From TrEMBL:
Coiled coil: none annotated. Residues 111-178 form the Transglutaminase-like domain. It comes from Flavobacterium humidisoli. It comes from the Bacteria. InterPro entries: CAP/Cytokinesis_protein, Papain-like_cys_pep_sf, Transglutaminase-like. This is Transglutaminase.
Length: 324
């Protein structure tokens, strides 16, 4: 075997081993933090415990994510009935900054003590704890994409917030608000469901569901059109690395008799792949083909197709498209 090929194989195996070891360590972090008390006397006490138990920046960043996700619940009532914005007067820039800091400190303490918050409280608490354990952390405000109606929206809005934390000289994307659970529209309430996928999320997946107010990430411009008009992806898409290779657009301009070609990475014929028609009946995809580590299939557009097509893999929703 040529020397270069041997070196490449060795490098790939080494990268795999490092990633596997890191994943194991992260899982151990979650197990340790799950045994922490729900209540600490102060954020300082919690930060001290995390610094004592964990050595690396990555473990400490994950421990903060896990503790918040395990213990702080999304305040859906506050989301529906937001408090009035607090105004204040000031005479100097120093006084302005002091009052902004006081408001932020109040937000952090309210989330920490009441165990309830909306995204602003989650992100402020995460930043506060991260900085206490020596991590550089920022809060990013922007738009989120979570519903079928979000496909093809005309404009973005500032309705969400998340964090970026510096680990091993690389900025990592974190959304601890989404890590703690989700809103179940059928039950009409929040469901506590710890989800690790929004810690150090792949930017390709993250920005399919988030768009910062700045329109950029680490100095690079992001495409607003791709965000607004791209397909809607789901948690299992990220968890299983189901990259949607085609179509790239979430809006399908079609007529009866047309066929949409779909290609999804890391899906095979052994998976059960189907979509729901407008009567919410499952329709299994026909004649799927395995192609370069992906599954390719076609969906016939007929009178049974509704305004949206959501594709499922083994009972999990993976991607949705808008039919025009």
């Amino acid at each position: 075997m040529p020397q270069k090929k041997i070196a490449l194989i060795f490098l790939l195996l080494n990268i795999f081993a490092i990633n596997f070891t890191f994943a194991q360590k992260i899982n151990e972090v979650d197990k340790i933090v799950a045994k922490y008390p729900k209540n600490f006397d102060s954020t300082e006490k919690l930060a001290d415990r995390i610094e004592k138990d964990f050595d690396s920046d990555a473990e400490r960043a994950r421990a903060i994510y896990s503790w918040i996700a395990f213990n702080i619940r999304y305040d859906y009532n506050a989301y529906l009935n937001p408090p009035r914005v607090q105004g204040f007067s000031y005479s100097t820039e120093a006084e302005k900054q002091r009052k902004i800091k006081q408001l932020n400190d109040n937000l952090i303490q309210k989330a920490f003590n009441s165990k309830k918050a909306v995204c602003e409280g989650f992100t402020a608490l995460y930043q506060n704890l991260a900085e206490q354990v020596g991590l550089k952390c920022e809060i990013v405000k922007g738009d989120s994409k979570t519903r079928l109606a979000d496909i093809g929206r005309k404009n973005t809005s500032s309705n969400h917030a998340w964090n970026m934390v510096l680990i091993n000289k690389k900025w990592r994307l974190i959304d601890v608000t989404w890590g703690q659970g989700y809103y179940d529209s059928n039950k009409g309430r929040m469901v506590n469901d710890f989800n690790p996928i929004y810690f150090d999320t792949d930017p390709d997946y993250f920005f399919a569901k988030h768009f910062p107010d700045s329109g950029s990430f680490l100095g690079s411009r992001l495409s607003k059109d791709d965000f607004l008009n791209g397909p809607l992806i789901y948690n299992k898409t990220i968890e299983n690395d189901y990259k949607i290779k085609t179509p790239s657009s979430g809006i399908m301009e079609v007529k009866n008799g047309d066929k949409i070609t779909v290609e999804i990475k890391n899906v095979s014929k052994s998976n059960q792949v189907f979509y729901l028609n407008k009567k919410n009946q499952p329709v299994k995809v026909q004649n799927p083909k395995e192609k370069r580590g992906a599954l390719e299939f076609q969906i016939l557009i007929d009178s049974n197709v509704g305004n949206y097509i959501t594709i499922f893999v083994d009972t999990d929703s993976i991607v949705s498209f808008k039919i025009v």
